[in-house]
Write a structure and sequence with these properties.
5 strands; Rossmann fold; about 30% helix; about 100 residues
């Protein structure tokens, strides 16, 4: 019986790209990859929407060592840079602004 993720049936021998919303240490990503491998589904790449840029020594990726490409759409530093730009705009308008960036 094929399983369905996001409405698309996948099964034994299929190759997939996994999308991760927020990438921190990579532990949950590796666990998800291992679960899919139990069903003989091959993850060829992981796309993270936000990479929190955890220091290398605290990451547990190992994705590239097993042949899985990792692509990040945004880095946390990109969000911080955009936030500073928004604060600058508000400051020039004379508005006080404190915009904390929250990644959940």
């Amino acid at each position: 019986m094929p399983m369905a993720i996001g409405g698309t049936p996948i099964g034994r021998g299929d190759k997939v790209v996994m999308v991760q919303d927020v990438l921190r240490t990579g532990t949950q990503t590796m666990q998800a990859v291992q679960k899919l491998e139990k069903f003989m589904v091959r993850v060829v790449a992981v796309i993270s929407l936000i990479d929190c840029e955890i220091p290398e020594n605290e990451r547990d990726f190992g994705l590239r060592t097993i042949g899985i490409d990792l692509v990040s759409i945004l880095r946390l530093s990109d969000i911080e840079e955009r936030k500073k730009h928004l604060v600058d705009i508000k400051s020039r308008r004379g508005e006080k602004s404190h915009l904390p960036a929250v990644v959940a």
